[in-house]
Automatic annotation (TrEMBL):
Coiled-coil portions: none
GO biological process annotation, one example: enterobactin biosynthetic process
UniProt keyword annotations, A-Z: Transferase
Binding site residues for CoA: R86, R94, T130, H131
Signal peptide: none
Ranges for domain 4'-phosphopantetheinyl transferase N-terminal: 78-134
GO terms under cellular component: enterobactin synthetase complex; plasma membrane
Protein name: 4'-phosphopantetheinyl transferase
InterPro entries (alphabetical): 4PPT_N, Enbac_synth_compD-like
Organism: Pseudomonas amygdali pv. tabaci (Pseudomonas syringae pv. tabaci)
Molecular-function annotations in GO: holo-[acyl-carrier-protein] synthase activity
Xref: Pfam families: 4PPT_N (PF17837)
Length: 135
C-alpha cells in the first residue's frame, strides 16, 4: 500500500511520532497470523516526499475466524461471501493501508470500500492498495 498527502489539512490528533523520525511498526499482536509482519520500505532510487510504502507477506491458509475483528478491520458483506484467499488479500491490504496512514500522519484509518469498490481515503490522502500471490 502506498499513501501520499495531497494537501495539508488539520490532523484530528497529533501524530504518534516526532517529525523526522520513523514511527514504530504495528505490533505483532495487532496483526493476523496470515499477515504477521508489515514492512516500511522505499524500493525506488529517490524518495517521494510525503509518501509512505508499507507491504507485507500474507498466507491465506493461515486466515482464521475472528482475524478481522482481532485486527479491528470491518469485513464488508462482499468479502464475507468470498473465499479465504480473497479475504486474506483484503485484510492484508487494509492492514498495510492502516499502517501506512499511521506512519504518514498518526491516523489509524482503515479505508472503507466505496460504491465503485475503490478504497475510500481521507480527503487529504491518496493511496493505492495492490496485491499479488502472497504479497
Amino acid at each position: 500500500c502506498v499513501v501520499k498527502r495531497t494537501q495539508m489539512l488539520p490532523v484530528p490528533f497529533p501524530p504518534t511520532h516526532s517529525p523526522g523520525k520513523m514511527p514504530p511498526m504495528t505490533r505483532l499482536s495487532d496483526l493476523s497470523i496470515c499477515c504477521p509482519e508489515l514492512i516500511r520500505h522505499w524500493p525506488l532510487p529517490q524518495a517521494l516526499p510525503g509518501a509512505v510504502l508499507v507491504s507485507g507477506h500474507f498466507d491465506p491458509l493461515k486466515l482464521v475466524e475472528g482475524d478481522f475483528q482481532r485486527c479491528a478491520v470491518q469485513m464488508p458483506a462482499s468479502i464475507q461471501r468470498s473465499v479465504a484467499k480473497r479475504q486474506a488479500e483484503f485484510l492484508a491490504g487494509r492492514l498495510c493501508a492502516r499502517e501506512a496512514t499511521r506512519q504518514l500522519d498518526g491516523r489509524l484509518h482503515v479505508p472503507a470500500v466505496g460504491e465503485d469498490r475503490a478504497p475510500v481515503w481521507p480527503a487529504d490522502v491518496c493511496g493505492s492498495i495492490t496485491h499479488s500471490t502472497g504479497w
